[in-house]
Amino acid sequence: MQVTYLILSILVISKSVMRIHLALPVLITMLCIAIPRGNAQRSAPQKLNKQLSLAFVTNNPADFWMVARKGVEKAEKELGIKVDYQMPSNGTAAEQTQIVNDLLAKGVDGIAISPVDPDNQTNFINSTSARTLVFTQDSDAPHSKRTCFIGTDNIAAGYQAGEELKKALPRGGNIMIFVGRRDARNAADRIKGLKESLGQSRIKVLGVRTDDTDRVKAKANVSDALIRYPKLAACVGIWSYNGPAILSALRDAKKTGKVKIVCFDEEEDVLSGIKNGEISAAIVQQPFQFGYQSIINMAKFLRGDKSVVPANRQVFIPTVVIRQKNVASFRKQLAQLRGR
Length: 340
Hints:
52% of the residues lie in helices and 16% in strands. The longest helix is centred in the first third of the chain and has 33 residues, at 2-34. The model is unreliable at 1-46 (pLDDT under 50). It is built from twelve helices and twelve strands. The strands form two sheets. Strands 2-1-3-4-5-11 form a six-stranded parallel β-sheet, sandwiched between helices. The protein has a six-stranded mixed β-sheet with strand order 7-6-8-9-10-12, sandwiched between helices. The radius of gyration is 30 Å and the shape is elongated.
């Protein structure tokens, strides 16, 4: 009897252990469902609802960026946040690197930067992107791991310049292009768009003169071209200072009005030249939108709206053509944006 009782006891215990063993996975699963998962569940809404810390970094201290700042300020008000706006004093990649490192040390959630030297800053942008959200604005680094670019489609801007040239030279003619460096991405794209626009027209591009951003050389290049090509019909200034350099050289040669000018950006001499009829048109960017869209879209992205970044990871802000008929209203608007 004792042996039989012992055997029965062992069988009961064995079945109990087996039941516990079989039930254990179910119990663990139920516990996992019932017990809150700490940071995994709490972090998502915290990230969506927390006060974002964003930064906007320019590539130099030009007036162009004062307009962009107004766009940043508008976004700040709409979002109820404060953006760390950084404007490098000397416009070097080294200074930008220091600024970004300081921002990373502060733990910013996102940085919108205009790279001074995109090709040589690609690795730096990649390492920054591993630590925070990075948008490029104004100047792109397309081979980097930045999340999105916000700025000008320079091929389209160049095409616009070509259309203005065709209006200024309905019978065609020879033209010369002036720029700091023709291999710079924005310069190459603008020239490409310009040539695409001219296409089968009777306008012929004689060449591209470069000045390495030396304003004295920029004017000298124009003066030399006027001597070498006395029948030159028009000059095209690709970078912001090229327009004023062309205008100054034409004034010295007493050829304003005879030689047409189409250029880029809104330097004061350019706007005065348009008003006086010395410059046919200028293609201008919208830095206000660079600032506004960069901050708004970074905030949306960080709060879960990934649709703000298109498949090609580029958001283009259209350029605007300034002519004699709209230069007065543009100058008034520009003065307000610059706080003058």
